[in-house]
Specification:
Length: 213
């Protein structure tokens, strides 16, 4: 567990960083130099006993699970896929998007079940497998880390499971959404031991955040 006198918060680089720091600032949880352009990986506010770890999105739940951070802010998609042993404390409401399945428009089939025993390209094989298995569908999962839309275009897969906000990228690549798997937002997560040992401080922060949500 992170330093007992400090509350350590893991924040993800990228889209959620600015939104996270903006929200935390409203409740006085901030530090000098806590901005996206900072090259520092750890930023400390000695006076308020706050420490921020700036890390890759996918690593936030790991830092929290192992207690290197007491708290973290991360998208629900990352929580679901990582399957880490953490507490999910609060839906922060920003970073809205959805996880969905899409296929090439010209290869659309009548029912979802008609895609059974086909290949899916995705960054989220565990989440996708839970969804399809729940519908009695067996699929082959191909893990990709970027440009998931390429999968069906180059014949690597019949479909994709990916995050979409506006759907523009899908349309540009002649892909059509078949089904929404789940809606996603950013969440506040906590280390299980930290939540007990620093309960008053964490709970107070959660209550302060609720006033702005």
């Amino acid at each position: 567990m992170s330093n007992e006198n400090f509350l350590t918060i893991a924040l993800p680089k990228g889209k959620l960083f600015g939104l996270s720091t903006e929200l935390l600032k409203k409740i006085g949880v901030t530090a000098e130099g806590l901005h996206e352009k900072s090259r520092k990986l750890i930023i400390t506010n000695e006076e308020e006993r706050l420490k921020f770890i700036i890390t890759k999105t996918a690593d936030v739940p790991t830092y929290v699970e192992y207690g290197a951070a007491d708290l973290g802010i991360i998208g629900k998609d990352v929580i679901a896929e990582s399957e880490k042993d953490i507490y999910e404390l609060l839906d922060l409401g920003f970073g809205k998007c959805r996880l969905m399945m899409a296929v090439p428009t010209e290869k659309k089939r009548a029912r979802l079940e008609d895609y059974s025993h086909t290949r899916v390209a995705t960054k989220f094989p565990k989440t996708a497998e839970k969804f399809f298995a729940g519908r009695g569908m067996q699929m082959e999962y191909i893990k990709l880390n970027g440009s998931i839309e390429l999968g069906p275009i180059v014949g690597l897969s019949e479909s994709i499971v990916d995050i979409v906000e506006t759907g523009t990228t899908l349309r540009e690549n002649n892909l059509e959404e078949i089904v929404t798997i789940t809606d996603l937002t950013a969440r506040l997560i906590a280390n299980r031991v930290s939540y007990k040992l620093k309960f008053d401080r964490i709970n107070s922060m959660v209550n302060d955040l609720k006033k702005f949500l």
